[in-house]
């Protein structure tokens, strides 16, 4: 029962200390995000990546600080439960006029669950669902910027309005030719208006902060014409000489925006006063994108996890299908299962790994953390990591339970943990990723439809052939983008890659990844004698980090149709000199450009792009 009176001074002091802890966290988070503008203006790319990586750790550090303060000053873990009821009510009062109430609720949960016993993770002690609305939050301080700015062009002055819109961001680095860029942008936007009637309500709305990631800054907005809205983004990059800025392209429409904000991309740096308002604006551009992925994209991963879990519980409530072993080839390290009606997969680290795998649970978790902190360049799926996750037992197939008991018994508990009479499957540690079509299944579907038979000219076979070519070309593009990010995937088999809804190939098996700069790329030595040549065993020495690109072919290119496409577009991936050349450039401090949009959308393709394969 909730208390009818708030009569405990210590309860208020605990609530205030927790709010102070959150406010400190968001101040540091926002300050680091705001400094992205200066790093962009000074072309400090190494600093930008370092800040993106370090910012990920901010949240856990602040939660730990707050927890330690509560224990030190209030002996919080010894306080009775009626005090904790009052703590939450006081905290709700502190949320009323807060600008980031949803984030503060999540922070409260993070701190509280470090203090209270699991049996108290109930609605009355934590924020199981939000209690303060995030609608129409405004900062009325005179110096505060609005969430977005509105511009009202006409067909005659569109280019001029676009030019002023860019200048209003106050970048302290001049453009190479902003009138030229504004004219190019107008050339893309104008046809959208020529095909329809121009209404009285013609306006452009743009978010007040640029979105910074790696070597780019992105202006995010939408073109409104009457009742229609067209989302767009303008990537702002440096010119070839890296001395001045230019607008590189116009990204518009649903697909472009989803790829830009994709789950396989690094998080943006954005200076946000009211994050929920940014998410609401972004959802108007991408209505099908879950809010949890938008919070993730903005660097607010803990809030993303909170919203994902709420969505997951809501889905369980309104579905009846069962969790099952995920389709596809089973991995050696991860046990993977899914719920057919839910677009994610769940991955549990196995307790033991058959030869030749030589790893450990901690090493595998370290690889996943590396990916979380690294630039994923659109080619490595982001993961949500949870501990102590409870599922209804009646939603698990017996086959899946037997699989977990066999391969990961240390991670499994089946009990009525909450004492409500309902058996639960409790997993001690689990990763959750967006579900994709495994690339081997995608290619097999093409084979089954006749895509590998050149004599089959039926429409179905031609479509299958196009699918096969797309999968193989995208696979090579994915490897080359990973090279640019200094990542060697280790296990390059087709089954470790997936196809997204937008046709992008994404890597998702991280237990063998290494930095390119840690690898030694070698040619296979020539046989010393006939016995060497005929031997089925490796007769030359192999170091722990040695990689022989020439040996990729037998594992990947057994199908002649696959081999033909691969060799036409990506033969250099079998050449150790190609890998070594790019390794050398990375070691020299070069940061390659990897674009989150198709090269055909660019206004100018810089000659420097030829330094790496065409896909970059």
From TrEMBL:
Binding-site residues for ATP, renumbered to this chain: 326-332, 347
Chief site of localization: cytoplasm
Record GO terms (molecular function): [isocitrate dehydrogenase (NADP+)] kinase activity; AMP binding; ATP binding; phosphoprotein phosphatase activity; protein serine/threonine kinase activity
KW Transferase (keyword) present: yes
One biological process term in Gene Ontology: glucose metabolic process
Domain of life: Bacteria
Positions of the Isocitrate dehydrogenase kinase/phosphatase (AceK) regulatory domain: 15-319
E.C. number(s) listed in UniProt: 2.7.11.5, 3.1.3.-
Pfam family for this entry, one: AceK_regulatory
Alphabetical UniProt keywords: ATP-binding, Cytoplasm, Glyoxylate bypass, Hydrolase, Kinase, Nucleotide-binding, Protein phosphatase, Serine/threonine-protein kinase, Transferase, Tricarboxylic acid cycle
Reactions catalysed, as given in the entry: L-seryl-[isocitrate dehydrogenase] + ATP = O-phospho-L-seryl-[isocitrate dehydrogenase] + ADP + H(+)
Transmembrane portions of the chain: none
GO cellular component terms given for this protein: cytoplasm
Subcellular location: Cytoplasm
Entry's family note: Belongs to the AceK family.
Role according to the record: Bifunctional enzyme which can phosphorylate or dephosphorylate isocitrate dehydrogenase (IDH) on a specific serine residue. This is a regulatory mechanism which enables bacteria to bypass the Krebs cycle via the glyoxylate shunt in response to the source of carbon. When bacteria are grown on glucose, IDH is fully active and unphosphorylated, but when grown on acetate or ethanol, the activity of IDH declines drastically concomitant with its phosphorylation.
Name by which UniProt lists this protein: Isocitrate dehydrogenase kinase/phosphatase
Biological source species: Rhodoferax fermentans
């Amino acid at each position: 029962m909730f208390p009818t009176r708030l009569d405990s001074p210590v309860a208020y002091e605990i609530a205030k200390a927790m709010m102070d802890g959150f406010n400190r966290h968001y101040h540091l988070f926002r300050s680091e995000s705001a400094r992205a503008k200066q790093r962009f203006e000074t072309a400090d790319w190494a600093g930008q990546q370092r800040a993106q990586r370090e910012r990920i750790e901010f949240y856990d550090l602040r939660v730990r600080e707050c927890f330690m303060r509560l224990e030190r000053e209030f002996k919080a873990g010894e306080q009775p439960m009626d005090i904790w009821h009052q703590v939450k009510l006081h905290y709700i009062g502190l949320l009323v006029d807060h600008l980031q109430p949803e984030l503060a609720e999540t922070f409260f949960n993070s701190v509280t669950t470090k203090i209270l016993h699991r049996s108290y993770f109930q609605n009355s002690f934590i924020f199981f669902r939000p209690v303060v609305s995030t609608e129409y939050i405004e900062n009325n301080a005179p110096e505060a910027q609005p969430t977005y700015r509105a511009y009202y062009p006409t067909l005659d002055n569109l280019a001029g309005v676009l030019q002023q819109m860019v200048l209003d961001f106050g970048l302290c680095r001049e453009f190479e030719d902003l009138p030229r860029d504004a004219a190019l942008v107008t050339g893309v936007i104008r046809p959208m208006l020529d095909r329809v009637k121009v209404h009285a309500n013609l306006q452009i709305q743009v978010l007040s902060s640029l979105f910074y990631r790696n070597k780019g800054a992105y202006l995010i907005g939408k073109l409104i014409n009457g009742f229609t809205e067209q989302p767009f983004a303008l990537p702002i990059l440096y010119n070839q000489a890296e001395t001045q800025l230019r607008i590189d392209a116009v990204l518009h429409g649903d697909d472009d925006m989803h790829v830009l904000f994709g789950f396989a991309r690094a998080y943006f740096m954005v200076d946000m006063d009211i994050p929920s308002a940014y998410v609401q604006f972004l959802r108007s551009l991408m209505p099908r994108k879950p809010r949890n992925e938008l919070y993730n994209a903005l660097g607010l991963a803990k809030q993303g996890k909170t919203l994902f879990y709420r969505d997951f519980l809501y889905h369980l409530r309104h579905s009846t299908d069962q969790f099952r072993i995920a389709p596809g080839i089973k991995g050696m390290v991860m046990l993977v299962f899914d719920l057919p009606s839910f677009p994610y997969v769940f991955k549990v680290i196995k307790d033991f790994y058959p030869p030749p795998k030589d790893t450990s649970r901690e090493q595998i978790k370290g690889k996943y953390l590396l990916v979380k902190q690294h630039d994923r360049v659109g080619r490595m799926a982001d993961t949500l990591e949870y501990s102590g996750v409870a599922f209804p037992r009646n939603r698990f197939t017996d086959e899946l339970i037997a699989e977990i008991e066999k391969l990961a018994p240390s991670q499994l508990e089946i009990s009525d943990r909450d004492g409500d009479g309902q058996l639960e499957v409790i997993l001690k540690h689990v990763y959750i990723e967006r579900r994709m079509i495994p690339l081997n299944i995608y290619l097999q579907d093409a084979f089954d439809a006749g895509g590998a038979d050149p004599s089959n000219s039926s429409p179905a076979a031609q479509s299958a052939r196009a699918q096969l070519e797309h999968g193989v070309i995208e696979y090579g593009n994915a490897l080359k983008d990973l090279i640019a990010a200094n990542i060697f995937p280790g296990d390059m088999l087709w089954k470790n890659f997936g196809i997204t809804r937008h046709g992008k190939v994404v890597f998702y098996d991280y237990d063998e990844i290494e930095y390119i700069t840690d690898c030694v790329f070698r040619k296979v030595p020539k046989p010393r004698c006939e016995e060497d040549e005929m031997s089925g065993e490796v007769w030359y020495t192999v170091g722990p980090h040695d990689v022989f690109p020439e040996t990729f072919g037998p594992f990947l290119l057994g199908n002649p149709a696959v081999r033909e496409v691969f060799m036409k577009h990506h033969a250099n991936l079998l050449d150790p000199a190609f890998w070594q050349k790019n390794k050398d450039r990375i070691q020299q401090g070069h940061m390659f450009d990897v674009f989150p949009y198709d090269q055909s959308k660019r206004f100018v393709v810089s000659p420097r792009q030829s330094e790496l394969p065409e896909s970059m």
